[in-house]
Amino acid sequence: MLAVKVPKGEAEAIRRKLLELGVLARGYAPERRGDFVLFPVTGPVEGFELIEVEFRRLRGRPRSYREVVDVPAELRPFLPSSFDIIGDIAIIELPGELRPYGKAIGEAILKAHRHVRAVFAKGGRIEGEYRVRELIHLAGRKGAETIHRENGIRLRLDVSKVYFSPRLATERMRVFRKAKPGEVVFDMFAGVGPYSILLARKVKLVFAVDVNPWAVRYLEENIGLNKVGNVVPILGDVRKVAGKVKADRVIMNLPKFAGRFLKGAMLSVKPGGVVHYYGFSPEENLFSEHEAKIEAVARELGLAVKFLDERRVRPYAPRQFNIAIDFMVEGSPSGP
Ligand SMILES: C[S@@+](CC[C@H](N)C(=O)[O-])C[C@H]1O[C@@H](n2cnc3c(N)ncnc32)[C@H](O)[C@@H]1O
User: pLDDT tens digits, residue range 16-43?
Assistant: First the structure.
């Protein structure tokens, strides 16, 4: 195959240049010949003499899909350096320029990641009551159902039908560490059960509510899959349940709209119980607006709150964060 012959001392710089130009042939080992290195290339490269060489094929997988993907050189800087993996499905966010190369990118991800069997691109924003987004199939299996493992539990889900983010695993473990045996937990927006099922391993009872029938279907499957008998799955709008359960710990993982459900959360927590509230905030004002809202709702109900912990959970958009506020509710609600 075709090769360029370059002096040993310049080899690394030239390798990068060839990569940038998108002409470095993938899957072959460069060769040393005396004071020169031979790089396999896919075609002529301006400024280099071409020679014909038999290269040894590289075994094993590339370390990144970017090493094997075939896109025009000028678009390489736009290739995302990371993507989410849920079970055996990769979900990547592609900038507009790269959309026409989705199939090549999907196939390169399959090549580079042994455990990935399907690749989808994000087709839009997370939207609607169910908090799902459109996905565009790029490569591999077409079905979007998978089993994801996190924090020692298994979660079956269809990434096109329910909300799920693997980026919250650490946050879920943090809440698990705070929970105590004997507690009753109210997971107001349970999804397929990543909080509920994890916490069920420690606490006495979990009420897990979701309005998306697919989420509750998977939640029920996941209860069986993980053999936890103390999770009560409830399909429906949490407003119909709030106030009817009394919990030691309430989880409000609906950052976009959590403010609207604060009253329900406070009516469902026992005196001295804890609420894990999530929200979205601009970098310059992470907590104070949420705190003000929480205090206002508590006042309205004749309750007091004590803020226990506040943190950034993860970046959400440029200069925007998904934040968490843990607060304790003191007293019992007054009036109707
Ligand atoms: C951001 S997701 C969180 C799911 C889950 N806790 C997790 O960590 O994967 C929010 C969930 O709330 C559900 N949801 C939205 N509005 C609801 C409501 N009014 N009552 C019950 N569930 C609701 C959505 O269907 C979605 O599954």
Answer: 888 888 888 877 888 998 899 999 988 7
